[in-house]
Amino acid sequence: MFISPAYAQAAGSPSGSDIMTFLPMIAIVVVFYFLLIRPQQKRAKETKAMLSSLQKGDEVVTAGGVVGKISKLSDAYADVEIAPNVEVTIQRSAISLLLPKGTIKTL
Considering 27, 58, 66, 75, which has the largest number of Cβ atoms within 10 A of its Cβ? Predict the structure, then answer.
């Protein structure tokens, strides 16, 4: 009375339209790779190379915006001189930018 009878539909014939249904999803994955994943991997690689090439005397900017000169380096930490006779110890990963020599004097 209240429920209408349900009839089975005819089975669909196998065709090439199955590939066409997945094509937009594949295109989205490719676009995400080239616009998001690949540039992020490149940036991480450049940052890792910069952190491994740090030397004593380099002028750097920390993630907090503090500008200073590296006075001592270890595997995980760096002592940065931010003013005469004022040194802070920071993690190497907190260094965000390597400045050209002489930048601190111009500030």
Answer: 58
Give the number of other Cβ atoms within 10 Å of residue 80's Cβ: 25
27, 47, 61 from 98: Cα distances, Å: 38, 10, 7
Q: Could you tell me the pTM of the whole model?
A: 0.70
CA 22, 25, 30 angle in degrees (round to 5)?
A: 125
Is pLDDT at 10 greater than 70 in this prediction?
no
Burial class (CB in 10 A: 0-12, 13-18, 19+), 87: middle
Question: 90 φ, ψ to 5°?
Answer: -130, 160
How far is the C-alpha of 65 from the C-alpha of 57, rounded, in Å? 18
Q: What percent of the chain has pLDDT over 70?
A: 91
What's the mean pLDDT in 21-35?
A: 93
CB proximity list for 93: less than 8 A, separation 6 or greater: 51
